[in-house]
Structures are given as structure tokens and as C-alpha cells.
Specification:
The protein has 481 residues and is of the alpha/beta class. The protein is built from 18 helices and 20 strands.
Length: 481
């Protein structure tokens, strides 16, 4: 008897898999029409708010719950589950158990972190593919992991894991794992930074070959030092500096391994160069590569080297990085005109991610579109850090108080334009027009909101799409006689 919480895309895949296994399924969801999209038989359905679902859980007591990542750790539903002693699994936990039961030789290589997960997993998948492997990118991106497991075609899985998914993952034992960084995010969901960090650290438990960490982030190093990994697992640091023994890093424009290659004690192994990443830089200019993109590539290379196919063909790293196409809305140049570059980084939904993107801009050349659902974040440190890169700021979002307060205290001399609340299309067209009025030839207009999109847009994807469309339309109107 299994309770499935949430009938979104992943929940539907879970229900189908469980039905094929003969489970008796109780669906919990807040949407009144949630069961309409379910084709598998359901023994019971509870539709209502968290309180109603928690009450039904206490009455029914399934053997295990498979929960959607959206169910907060501190909310009434999971609190009731703990009180009742009910086992709680993520879809990832269920998928891993099915993987071990069906094709146990297929390894998982897993990635988490506050920022950079999607880029790193995409690079990792591209490198593994270049080595001749069927290596889909799954987890928090792409197809539900459980669907890919049941299809049974993958040679290795490149898996992006959020802190939500890790919170209810129990037995995963990856070939290699990485936490890229740790900064405050989703604290309302977890109940605090310590709990958020503890869930991120779960990525390293039972890792078999390589526990990859960021040498510039002490929190990730501490996670590895404290992790209960398998015997023989190596700690591998990635760094933008020249690597020492046990690290993958940069020597001038070369990516070099001194952690996993057999000759690491006496020599480094060249893996790739910055030219292999140039297509990811604004204007495809390698010298403009943001530092965090290079760091993501180093992490992906370290993780990939843990697989025998890449270790025996390290040239796959350069081939894979050259083939990697960035996901939509992550530092994508969407328009250029009048000497101004327009970059969509709508996926920068927290201050840490926005800072990484803006820090790559030359001093005084950035026009920043900022704001949205703040998720309770603070913006003072972010504004202080990126102020040198900025010419001006355009503020969007339904509630702009926290953002404006940070701008007043940390950058009182900076030009700021506020966009009134409205529908997503009008908000973004207004923001683009305001940014264009500020920008000068040689400048970059960057949508890096540092906030979630839900207050004015349906998703970060819609926010980015509207930005790109508005920027292109503006440039076309200026170029048309």
C-alpha cells in the first residue's frame, strides 16, 4: 500500500510504475482535478489542503509514501508522516531501488548544489555520451528518473538532485557525487540553513569512487570530510587555480587533472581548454567566460573521470564540452543590436546564482533586470557584490520592497527604474524598454532576477521567453527604417 503525493509529471510516472508492480495506490493532491490525468487504478484519492491530506494519512497509514519535491519538510503532511512512523521516499529513492532490482550494473553519477546543477549535469551527460555511452541527463531535469530506469537503455545515469529530492532519498549509492556550492535558498521549505545543508550533504553518502567538492566552498569540503562513503572513495576538489594533488583545476587556459589519472603524483593530465567552452561565453568569446561556467566544467570533468570509459578515453572531456548545448534560460545570448548584448539568465532564481552571472561583466557595463518572488531571501550582500559591474537596474516583481531596500542601502547612487505590477507580457516589455534606455554600446543587459517567477509569470521559462521576445522585437523595431 503506497501513498503517492502529487500527480504532476513525476507523480504520474511513479503511479504508472507502482501500478505495474501491483501496488495499491492512495493519491494525495491539493488540486481538485488531480485524479483526472491518472490512467492507472487508484484505491483511494484524497484531494484537499495540507491539513486534510495529513488527516487522511493518519486514517489510512500506507506502508510507504512517495512524495513530490514540492511537499515541504516542515509542513503538516510530512510532520504527520514522521509522527505515524510511515516510511517516506522520493521518486529518486524508488527509482534507485528499481535500478538495483533490474539492472544493478548501471551506475549513477549525481550532482547537487545551490547553483550550477543543470549546467554541470548537462556537461557530464555530454562527456559520457562522447565516450560512447548512453548517458541521459535526468532527475531534477529531463524525464522522470523512474521512467528512464524502467526503459532500461541507459549505460550510466547523469542525475541532478535537488535538496527536496535528497531529503527523502535513503539508499542511493552513486559511482561519483558532487555538491557544487552551498548558499541560502529554500530555507522556508527546509526550516533553516543547517537543515538545507544537511540535505545537500546526503549526496555523498555511500559514494563509491569519487566525492567531488568545490575547494572555494568550505561547506562542500566539510560535507566530504564528514560523509560516510564507500571504502576507497577519493575526495576530489575542483578549483579555478592550478591543481595540487587530489584536485582538478586550471593551468593557464588548460583544464588539468591531478586527482584521478594514474600518474597524478608526478604529472597532471590535460583534459580540455577554455576554447572548448567558448560557445558558452557572451559573443562566443572565450575571454568572457563566466568563472562559474568554467567551475561547472571542471566539476563535470572530475565526475566523468570516475567512469572507466572516460578514464580510458580522456579526450571525451574536450569533445563533450564542445558538443554541450546550454539549457534554455541559463546565460543564453538572445539578442544583439546597437552594440548591446542581451542575456537571458532567468534560471538565476536566487541571489547566489545571480551574483555568479553578473560578476563576469566588465565594470560599469551591466544593466540588470532584477526581482520577483523573493522566497524570503536577503539582497544586501548580492547588491554590494555586483555594484561595480552595473550601470543601472530595472526592478520587476509584485512586491519590490526587499529588493528596493537593498538597492537604497548598498547602491544609493545607482540608476533604478521600477516596473509596475501587471501581466507577464507587459511587465517584461516594460523592463526591456527601460533597460534599453539605460544601456550604452558595449553594455550587457542581463535578466538575472535572483528571485522565483511565480508572482508575475507561470515559470522561469516563460519569464525568459518573454524577455528574449521583447529584446528581439525592440532591436528589430530600431533597425527597421
Amino acid at each position: 500500500r503506497v501513498g503517492v503525493v502529487g500527480a504532476g509529471r513525476t507523480g504520474l510516472a511513479v503511479i504508472e510504475a507502482l501500478a505495474d508492480l501491483g501496488a495499491r495506490i492512495h493519491l494525495f493532491d491539493s488540486r481538485q482535478d488531480a485524479a483526472d490525468s491518472v490512467s492507472a487504478p487508484l484505491e483511494r484519492v484524497t484531494l484537499g489542503d495540507d491539513g486534510a491530506q495529513a488527516d487522511a494519512l493518519g486514517e489510512d497509514r500506507p506502508d510507504v509514501l512517495v512524495v513530490s519535491p514540492g511537499v515541504p519538510a516542515t509542513g503538516p503532511f510530512l510532520t504527520r508522516a514522521r509522527q505515524e512512523g510511515i516510511r517516506v521516499w522520493s521518486e529518486i529513492e524508488l527509482a534507485w531501488r528499481l535500478q538495483r532490482a533490474t539492472r544493478p550494473a548501471v551506475p549513477w553519477i549525481v550532482v547537487t548544489g545551490t547553483d550550477g546543477k543543470t549546467t554541470t549535469v548537462g556537461m557530464l551527460s555530454a562527456i559520457l555520451t562522447a565516450a560512447g555511452l548512453d548517458a541521459p541527463a535526468v532527475g531534477n531535469i529531463g524525464s522522470p528518473t523512474i521512467t528512464t530506469v524502467l526503459e532500461g537503455r541507459a549505460d550510466v545515469m547523469a542525475v541532478e538532485l535537488s535538496s527536496f529530492q535528497l531529503h527523502t532519498t535513503r539508499t542511493l549509492s552513486p559511482l561519483a557525487a558532487a555538491c557544487l556550492n552551498l548558499a541560502p535558498d529554500h530555507l522556508d521549505w527546509h526550516g533553516g540553513l543547517a537543515a538545507y545543508g544537511a540535505d545537500k550533504a546526503r549526496i555523498y553518502a555511500r559514494t563509491r569512487r569519487a566525492a567531488v567538492y568545490n575547494t572555494a566552498d568550505a561547506a562542500t569540503r566539510a560535507m566530504v570530510e564528514q560523509a560516510d562513503v564507500a571504502e576507497g572513495c577519493l575526495a576530489v576538489g575542483f578549483t579555478l587555480a592550478a591543481p595540487v594533488l587530489g584536485q582538478v583545476g586550471m593551468v593557464e587556459d588548460l583544464m588539468v587533472d591531478r586527482a584521478l589519472n594514474p600518474e597524478r603524483r608526478s604529472a597532471g593530465l590535460e583534459l580540455a581548454c577554455l576554447a572548448d567552452l567558448a560557445h558558452l561565453a557572451p559573443g562566443a568569446e572565450a575571454e568572457r567566460l563566466p568563472a562559474h561556467v568554467v567551475a561547472d566544467a571542471l566539476a563535470a570533468a572530475a565526475l566523468a573521470l570516475a567512469h572507466d570509459s572516460v578514464a580510458s578515453d580522456p579526450g571525451a572531456i574536450a569533445r563533450g564540452l564542445r558538443a554541450f548545448a546550454p539549457g534554455a534560460h541559463r546565460l543564453v545570448t538572445v539578442a544583439q543590436g546597437g552594440g548591446v548584448t542581451w542575456i537571458d539568465d532567468s534560471k538565476a532564481t536566487n541571489p547566489h546564482s545571480a551574483e555568479a552571472a553578473l560578476a563576469s561583466l566588465p565594470a560599469g557595463t551591466g544593466v540588470w533586470i532584477l526581482g520577483g518572488d523573493t522566497k524570503g531571501a536577503s539582497f544586501d550582500d548580492l547588491v554590494r557584490a555586483v555594484r561595480p559591474a552595473l550601470r543601472g537596474v530595472v526592478v520587476i516583481g509584485r512586491d519590490q520592497r526587499d529588493v528596493l531596500a537593498a538597492l537604497r542601502t548598498q547602491a544609493p547612487d545607482l540608476a533604478v527604474t521600477r516596473i509596475p505590477d501587471g501581466d507577464g507580457r507587459s511587465v517584461m516589455s516594460g523592463a526591456v524598454a527601460a533597460a534599453a534606455a539605460m544601456a550604452r554600446p558595449g553594455d550587457t543587459v542581463m535578466l538575472a532576477p535572483a528571485c522565483a517567477s511565480w508572482d508575475q509569470f507561470s515559470s522561469y521559462a516563460q519569464r525568459g521567453d518573454l524577455f528574449a521576445a521583447s529584446a528581439r522585437a525592440l532591436i528589430q523595431s530600431r533597425e527597421t527604417p
